[in-house]
Amino acid sequence: NKTYKIDVNVSGLSSEQNLEIANKIRKISSNNIFFIDVEPIINLLLNHNLIEHFNIKKIYPNSINISILPTKFIAKIKNANEVLIIGSNGKLIKKEKVDKDLPFLYGKYDRKYFLEFYVSLINSEFQYNEIDSILYFPSRRWDLKLKDETLIKLPSNNLTKSLKLAHLIKKKKNKSIKIIDLRIKNRIVIKWITQI
């Protein structure tokens, strides 16, 4: 029985992060590719905040290739005294430099509801870079503040439909709207900017 030194190749993140993950995998892996238990490798990758998806491939006689799709940075949130990034995987990420263009999330962070909201937002007509901040209420309702100071008050359900309607209203009357309130079913309240 010939044993080979396992060669671990990781791609998708920065060179430094790929090397760090490869080294951790080498420490928990057997020297024989036939006896490598992928469960600890999967757990290691699932617990990494910067990973959205990954693919593990054993290549005989002695290689493991791991392709990583990094998470997208989609919002920022203040937690205690630090600003954290929210990834598209829902995980909170510490970063030294925080992208100023990411929208700020206010309210208690709930991973499940935020990711559902994010999907609705992506499926709407709004461009993500138009959004200044997102406010989450305990009633599972959302407000959006756009960079042009327009406030959109959304209902707690039918988010994609409501976002598309808000975008249509905004597109038609762009410069003069201050608030679009869609909280009440079958009712639209628009507050206009008053000129002095």
State Rg: 22 Å
N- to C-terminal separation?
87 Å
Would you list the SSEs in sequence order as H and E? EHHEEEEEEHEEEHEE
Across the major sheet, the strand order is 6-5-4-7-8-9-10-11-12
Number of strands: 12
Count the helices. How many?
4
Strand content: 25-35%
What this model shows, in words?
It is built from 4 helices and 12 strands. It has helices at residues 15-28, 38-46, 111-122, 159-172; strands spanning 7-11, 51-59, 63-70, 73-79, 82-87, 92-93, 104-106, 131-137, 141-146, 151-153, 177-181, 189-192. It is 25% helix and 33% strand. The model has no long low-confidence stretch (mean pLDDT 89). The chain starts with 6 loop residues before the first strand and ends with a strand. The strands form 2 sheets. Strands 6-5-4-7-8-9-10-11-12 form a 9-stranded mixed beta sheet, with helices on one face. Strands 1-3-2 form a 3-stranded mixed beta sheet, covered by helices on one side. The radius of gyration is 22 Å and the shape is elongated. The protein is of the alpha/beta class.
Condensed summary:
With 196 residues, the protein is an alpha/beta fold.
Task: Record the SSE blueprint.
Blueprint: E1 7-11, H1 15-28, H2 38-46, E2 51-59, E3 63-70, E4 73-79, E5 82-87, E6 92-93, E7 104-106, H3 111-122, E8 131-137, E9 141-146, E10 151-153, H4 159-172, E11 177-181, E12 189-192
Parallel strand pairs: 1-3, 4-7, 7-8, 10-11
Antiparallel strand pairs: 2-3, 4-5, 5-6, 8-9, 9-10, 11-12
Short descriptors:
three-stranded mixed β-sheet; 4 helices; 196 residues; single chain; 33% strand; alpha/beta; elongated; nine-stranded mixed β-sheet
